[in-house]
Design brief:
Elements lengths: L16 E4 L5 H12 L3 E6 L6 H11 L4 E5 L18 E4 L10 H21 L5 E5 L16 E2 L6 H7 L10 H23 L4 E7 L1 E3 L12 H10 L11 E5 H13 L7 E4 L2 E3 L1 H11 L18 E2 L2 H8 L9 H8 L3
Parallel strand pairs: 1-2, 1-4, 2-3, 4-5, 5-7, 6-12, 7-10, 8-9
Antiparallel strand pairs: 9-11
Helix pairs in contact: 1-7, 3-5, 4-5, 8-10
């Protein structure tokens, strides 16, 4: 499915090489897939060649030889980590992040910042680099407020509350892990905007801020991050992963990936924070869809006391970019859940 550039030339021409960090991950693999579909070549970073065997096989079979390659970046925290990987690239999608959900901010936040800044530094050293898109998160702006119709999300906010709570003194109890993750995304994105403001690189920075991703899992061996939650419910009736995530907004992972493509190829998208929030949901909504889809299969009971996100979000600009891929806007919750279990 092509992207309508409104008769303008792309910011980087099709056929250019784009670096995707964390390419074996749930979001990273979809970003690579959508760039390949749009006519770009992809170099993906991975911590080991063995880990990336499935993605090389998948994309070579789908797009042919010479379109996809991988490079090992064993430690993105190491100074100069991406310097070799970025050579010859015209764009970067920096997706790799710490998903350990460790409650200790010292183990999560500094490495996440270092990885982002190493990618930015590498981009600045590479003369062919024109576009940099960072996979931020909805939680870089704020945590969703439940049952609060007046709550409104814009692309100007920052989750300073999570940052303050994450850096509170020990003990680092397990319940602090999600807050630390939120703070890591907020601080990493903020540092990238600061880098651009101070260094004034030749490349353009855009950020995509998705809420919870769901939808197709490209390979069964993937841990699949948030996508694993629905898969676990469907396969085993296991709500462990689902219970980690409070009610919020969801987005189809393919929509998230396409917004990254738009952020790199569209010359009109510059210095933007693109909000990828499609529909409010909670996991009782997901259970209802699964029960309707599989009436003969047993699923866990609804979670008592789950609230609802009842506020609003400025998600129109993201929907308009998706329309330029030929779709009607955001992919729906029901379709995304069914895709998540392979339908």
């Amino acid at each position: 499915m092509g992207y309508d550039l409104k008769e303008k030339s792309p910011a980087i021409p099709q056929g250019s090489l784009v670096l995707v960090t964390g390419v074996t991950g749930y979001i990273g693999s979809h970003i690579a897939d959508q760039f390949l579909e749009a006519g770009y070549r992809i170099r993906g970073t991975t911590r080991s060649n063995d880990k990336a065997a499935w993605v090389r096989e998948l994309f070579t079979k789908k797009y042919g030889e010479g379109k996809f390659e991988t490079v090992v970046v064993a430690d993105m925290v190491k100074e100069g980590a991406f310097d070799e990987a970025v050579k010859g690239c015209s764009g970067i999608a920096h997706v790799a992040s710490d998903l350990s959900f460790s409650p200790d901010p010292n183990l999560v936040i500094p490495p996440t910042l270092a990885g982002a800044l190493n990618a930015a530094s590498a981009a600045t050293k590479e003369p062919s680099l024109k576009r940099f898109v960072f996979t931020s998160s909805s939680v870089a702006i704020d945590n969703a407020q439940l049952n609060t119709p007046s709550f409104h999300i814009t692309n100007t906010g920052w989750n300073d509350s999570a940052i303050e709570k994450a850096w509170a003194p020990p003990p680092y109890t397990p319940d602090r892990g999600y807050t630390v993750y939120c703070a890591s995304k907020a601080q990493a994105e903020r540092e990238l905007w600061k880098f651009v403001s101070e260094k004034k690189p030749r490349w353009v920075l855009n950020c995509v801020l998705p809420d919870l991703n769901m939808g197709t899992i490209l390979h069964d061996s993937q841990a699949a991050s948030t996508g694993a939650a629905i898969r676990s419910i469907y396969r085993d009736g296991d709500m462990t992963t689902a219970n980690m995530f409070p009610p919020a907004w969801m987005v189809n992972v393919r929509d998230t990936a396409r917004l990254h493509v738009a952020a790199v190829m569209d010359p009109d998208v510059t210095n933007e924070r693109i909000l990828a929030y499609a529909h409010p949901y909670n996991f009782n909504d997901v259970l209802a869809i699964l029960r309707e889809t599989y009436p003969g299969k047993e699923f866990p009971k609804d979670v008592e006391g789950l609230g609802k996100v009842t506020g609003s979000v400025e998600n129109g600009p993201g929907a308009e970019l998706l329309k330029r891929f030929g779709q009607s806007g955001w992919t729906g919750l029901e379709e995304s859940v069914r895709e998540n279990v392979g339908l």
